[in-house]
Design goal:
mainly alpha, Histone Acetyltransferase, Chain A, 86% helix, rod-shaped
């Protein structure tokens, strides 16, 4: 009889524990459900940004294809410029000091010689006169100034005068050659500079297109870097929420196991009582 009474008492205590644990379990489940929602939200945000990151990478690769082709074409086109400038330099190499002295000695230079001299003044941005040109010719580093002329940045005004120069019958190399050997070589140099500038200017739209394409890619890559950082932050947050959710579920499982253990004890004692 005592055993029966004790068994009933134990069953009552087990049920009390089960009842006591029930609100704790419900609270734990509610907390776990909230943690699961936060985790799933973090997962959704992470996957969305990760997909955007992948799409951005694909877009950059797509942009690179025409950009690389444009870069290749631009480089090939600009390779045309080297022979043109080299031809201009070769004309300078043919200049002799004696020829330059002869050109400086004219009291009244022939028209072709004068036009060559005036155009030199234009390119070096000095007053357009034969007197000023002679001052240039007298410079100790005159040839070096010609060799290192900033040919990529010749003004529109100077270029127009170059164009007029090469089309002038008085400044054709054969005509100038009959007046002065120095003027002839300078004339050939000026025509080489004109050819270089003409091709260089024709290539500027393509060069600008390449610059814009490269800038677009650079901006896209910068955006991708920001997206990668955002993806990394969201991945860290997701991992944190997963750990948090697992921790909450561990509490739920622990409480469920305790209830289950008490139910098992009650059942065992009830069977022993019978």
């Amino acid at each position: 009889m005592a055993k029966v009474f004790q068994a009933k008492e134990d069953i009552r205590k087990s049920q009390d524990e089960i009842d006591r644990l029930q609100p704790l379990l419900e609270t734990a489940r509610s907390i776990a459900e909230d943690a699961e929602k936060v985790m799933k939200s973090a997962q959704e945000s992470y996957l969305t940004v990760k997909k955007s990151c992948e799409d951005q990478y694909t877009e950059i690769e797509r942009l690179k294809i025409p950009c690389e082709q444009l870069r290749k074409e631009t480089n090939q086109d600009f390779e045309q410029l080297s022979p043109l400038f080299q031809a201009a330099l070769e004309a300078l190499n043919m200049l002799r000091k004696a020829d330059i002295v002869e050109m400086k000695s004219y009291p009244a230079p022939p028209e072709g010689v004068k036009l060559v001299a005036i155009l030199l003044c234009v390119l070096f941005d000095v007053p357009e006169s034969y007197k000023e040109a002679i001052l240039l010719l007298r410079s100790d580093n005159f040839i070096q100034q010609l060799q290192f002329l900033d040919k990529d940045n010749i003004s529109d005004s100077a270029y127009r005068k170059l164009c007029k120069f090469v089309n002038d019958p008085e400044t054709q190399p054969t005509v100038v050659a009959s007046k002065s050997r120095a003027a002839e070589q300078l004339c050939l140099w000026l025509r080489g500079i004109h050819s270089y500038c003409t091709i260089y200017r024709q290539l500027q739209p393509k060069k600008q297109s390449l610059k814009e394409a490269e800038l677009k890619i650079a901006k896209a890559e910068s955006k991708l870097c920001e997206m990668k950082l955002r993806t990394s932050d969201l991945r860290d947050l997701l991992e944190k929420e997963i750990v948090n959710y697992k921790g909450k579920m561990k509490i739920v499982k622990g409480l469920e196991k305790k209830q289950q253990d008490f139910r098992y004890d009650s059942k065992t004692k009830y069977e022993d009582e019978e």
